[in-house]
Amino acid sequence: MSAEATRVSRGWLDLRERADAAARSRELVGHLRHALPVGRPLLIHDLACGSGAMGRWLAPQLPGPQRWVLHDRDVDLLAIAETDVPDGAAVTVETRASDITLLDSADLEGATLVTASALLDLLTGDELERLIHLCVQVGCPALLTLTVTGRVTLAPPDELDSSVAAAFDAHQRRRTPRGRLLGPDAVEAAAEGFRRLGADAIVRPSPWQLGADEAGLAAEWLAGWVGAACEQDPGLRDAAGLYRGRRLREAAAGRLAVSVGHADLLVLP
To answer: Is 221 in contact with 23 (CB distance < 8 Å)?
Structure first.
């Protein structure tokens, strides 16, 4: 993304890829297929692509041939995306080192689809507004998946769950050198922004459902969730240490179920 953005590790992206694939809305893909042009190749721009997981999930569900242009500022992740490509001989991949907040319509010329995953909540209001205008100007559908919504449920419940969740949501909305992040407000802001400009915006829930089969991801997510909450509210640190220990033991034993709220947004011009 931008110069001061936190780098995302390959390990975290690998760990979450299966849960992401299970969570994304296939209903929206059905709507998208009906909106794509027929009889000509697809040109798909994937913004902040990371290691390319969005393409590996979506490409097999769309007609070919397809040309994917993957944008990210992390050249190491782009190198992975360039080699770990979607299945299918009719899919080709090009990578571009890009700050996606600075793209203009010339960078997306000829696009038939714009995609992004786990992106919108990391943007400021101004950055989101620029992205909205860019997508509308390009005039093609956009599928923007896995934006956090702030809804987290853990079972069994714990008395500290709500305090940690509130502090984490505040951290997601924190002020940065770029401005205040949208965090859990991003999906609603994006849908409203697209609708103001005359586009159709369809929102569907896409929560992670993490049980015993995803204990590793649940533990990694939990550590980051609690850590961010304590960074936002240092007063939580003493109690959070014990809380994190309890929850990590439950996750390791396969006794922790976590639902992490996300939403997918399909924009149709």
So the answer is: no
Terminal CA-CA length for the chain = 25
Whether the predicted pLDDT of 125 surpasses 90: yes
DSSP E strands: which ranges in the chain? 42-47, 66-72, 91-97, 113-117, 142-155, 175-176, 179-180, 200-205, 208-210, 257-268
CA atoms of 74 and 50, how far apart (whole Å): 7
Q: How far apart are CA 149 and CA 160, in angstroms?
A: 19
Determine contact, residues 267/138, Cβ cutoff 8 Å. Answer: no
230 backbone dihedrals φ, ψ, rounded to 5° = -70, -35
Instruction: Report whether pLDDT(16) > 50.
Output: yes
Give the per-residue pLDDT at 89. 60
Residues 6+ away with beta carbon under 8 Å from 37: 112
Could you give the percent of the chain with pLDDT greater than 70? 97
d(CA 208, CA 187): 16
Task: Tell me: pLDDT of 84 over 70.
Answer: yes
* Distance, CA of 118 to CA of 70 (rounded, Å): 15
Give the model confidence (pLDDT) of 88-107 as tens digits.
669 999 999 999 999 999 99
Structure tokens at 10: 């390959």
pTM to 2 decimal places: 0.94
CA–CA gap between residue 89 and residue 197 (Å, rounded)? 37
CB 122 within 8 Å of CB 5: yes
Other beta carbons within 10 Å of 109? 10
Residues 171-178, mean pLDDT to the nearest whole number = 96
